[in-house]
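During the no-cost extension, the postdoctoral fellow (Dr. R.K.) reprocessed legacy sequence entries with the updated structure-token encoder. One reprocessed record is reproduced below for audit purposes.
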Amino acid sequence: MGKVMTLRGQFTIADNARFLNGQIFSYEANNLTRGWKVNNFYWWPATLRGETGTGDGQFMVAATLYTDNTGNIGFEDISGCDDNRAIAWVQRGYNRRQSAIGDFITTPTGLGDNRALLDPDHIVNNALFINAYSTSDSTTSPERLYNYYVELEEIKLTPAQAILAIIKGKAQDVEN
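Re-encoded structure tokens follow.
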């Protein structure tokens, strides 16, 4: 096992909105024999309280880890697995609740259930981006702070592996 590095931080997203191309990692060097494997990716709301609208209901968050900037993609594209740049996906449902002391979202399971499904066949050798969204059955859209945690393992690459990883990790126009 190679050297392990963790990345963690936060982004703000309003309910019923997208968050695109949040860069969390960048590596620029002439050394092509170095790469990283994502071993874990977690995404969860840090802000559980917020005006959620009238009545109880449902709330969902989704986040995907990408190896390249995706531009302005739609809600339906964020969780897709048809893009070679997407390498990790997490989706999670919550319940919206109203109470006398304030509105909040809740889930009956723990933090570990915010772990992503990982593509085992990927190498990161340039950058990592997070795209995410939340959706709710309420039209009220408070801003929430979201946490991310990414665990990377450093790996050694041959020049051929590095070139293939660079090609796979970038957007490609296969129609022109």
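The CA atoms of residues 33 and 158 lie 6 Å apart. The helical segments are 75-78, 159-168. The remaining legacy entries will be reprocessed before the final report is submitted.
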